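Much of the work behind modern protein science is quiet bookkeeping, done one molecule at a time. The protein below has been through that process, and both of its lines are reproduced in full.


***
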Amino acid sequence: MNDFGKRLCTAVPVFAAAVSPSALNAAAPADTGRKGNTRPNIIYIMTDQQCATAMSCAGNPDVNTPNMDRLAERGIRFTNAYCAMPLSGPSRGAMFTGYMPSETGIIENDIPVPDTLKGITLGSLVASAGYDCAYAGKWHVNTVSLPSAHAFGFRNLHGHDDRGLSEACVEYLREDHDRPFFLVASYINPHNICEYARGQNTPHASLPEFTLEDCPPLPANFAVNPYDAAVLQFEKRQSYSLYPSQDFTPDDWRRYRYAYYRLVEAVDSEIGKILDEIDRQGLWDNTVIIFTSDHGDGNAAHQWNQKTVLYEEVANIPFIICLPGGRNAGKMLPQLVNNGTDLMPTVCDWAGAEVPAGRSGLSLRDVAESGDAAHPFRDYVVTETNFNQTAGTSGWMVRTPKYKYVLYDKGLYREQLYDMENDRGEMVNLAVDSGYRKELEEHRAMLKEWMETHSKRHLRHIPAK
């Protein structure tokens, strides 16, 4: 861990002593989770390294995702959902603790949940409310699979491997449940694009033979904009194994995009096995289904592969909520979501579990059940990052309804401001345009407020007015 990571870990706020999960909801109602009960079953489906736009329901002609599309048709798709940090361990740590990575110190893949939080993670809270909780697939906080047969409130159904994961979930769904359940299905793909980029075999899915003519075109924002943060190219040069794309030709990037979309389709097919079982049992009527990813992938935008950077392709992730009975089916909502910190209060809201004090996330239940694009939620959402795997650059993103502000802690053009209505590809950095001075200062103030609220340590101050 670098010096910045150590300083973050020592800056973690003092948490209340771990409490018995049963004490949080000692009087949880005893219902079965089947049709007619007051509390729904909850199924959380998560992919790894999937962009929000890597679905055919998002209007992408280069990928075919019939099962993700089924979720979007039956549910509400949030178009402005972001991860807490675009790296697996920190993102997942936020989901299951309810805290931002910088608050817990989980800012790298190899950092475990703090001991003071182990008894009050999401699974423990929902189990204390009377739910049967089960987990299948990648955990990665910090072990890649759950560390034992029962951990963090979950029964471990299947380890870190997409092969057999869906079948384990289907077998679980076929069990005789005498209470509502909370099932997590956590897939690894399209993460295998990392191996593909390095010229390695893809361990959890096979790629078909293809030619260049089969490959999609380069994205419209393939170029690196002239006022992009200069430190990103420096970070890219620090690790060839993470960023072998340094030597990619345009044709290599097209092949990369083809492989990426096939890996998305592979995991979509696996998700379909679970949805088919939900169909067979008629569970749509009494189940909340949430679909998301832990972070995205550069996918050739600005010639970036992998994650960590705060580009839209990396930070903006799919987020779909299917309500029981298909309520508000097919709607798209613009509310600003953090799928890390918002997951715990959202799931706990439906489960009737108490969220411990100190979490900053918001429940999406009222927004989803209203189906109203104007329903009040939050004014801005923050994603943070740290390049601990390379040179240790830190960064923060503030997303408001119209703009996206990005700050890195070092380098030329470390401030970015983009018009998300007219330039979602992030090609025109308005931070260098004096005509946007007011908007720039407003977003600086929001980030300053957020840092003060979250006890966030940073190496360089936000630029002065």
